[in-house]
Amino acid sequence: MATKAAQDASPTQVMELWERLNNARAKIAAIDPDEIEVGATPKDEIARDGTVTLYRYRPLVDKPLGIPVIYAYALVGRYNVADLSPDRSLIRRLLEQGLDVYAIDWGHPRPVDCHVGLEDYILGYIDDFVDIVRERSPRHREGQPAGHLPGRHLPHHLRLAFPGKGQFGGHHGGAVRLPRQRR
Hints:
Blueprint: H1 4-8, H2 11-30, E1 43-49, E2 52-57, E3 68-72, E4 83-85, E5 88-89, H3 90-96, E6 100-105, H4 118-136, H5 138-142, H6 154-161
Parallel strand pairs: 3-6
Antiparallel strand pairs: 1-2, 2-6, 4-5
């Protein structure tokens, strides 16, 4: 069913739209997928457990703040959606602010992973990776590490699972504040 605007379009407007669509299609077809570099911000693998990997991005400023941020994207997506290109990169913007950025890549599940559940992600991978980041962070020793967990439910589960590890952010992501280390 055509919209009112489409019904009112002149033949010239329809032809112009058709030409723009064909030009866009030609531009997309001309792109070589091998030349697209998603997730190009330099990073190093810090830890791996099966298909799940913790990366640490290299600093982009001379004097980083040392405040860690853990970016854990949805289980059904790819972490590098936060680092599409230099001009469209949440990761790069965080690094430019001097933050110490980590990302969890959930990888691609294998048939052998068919019994891995949400509990394994929360009580296993995330817990282990938070501990690794806390150990590596000089700011943790001063008591100020943080993290980012997109989504509505995961931060709630983390608060329940780890009441002594800090406040985990809420609705559609938020800061994960880890507690000050007692001396």
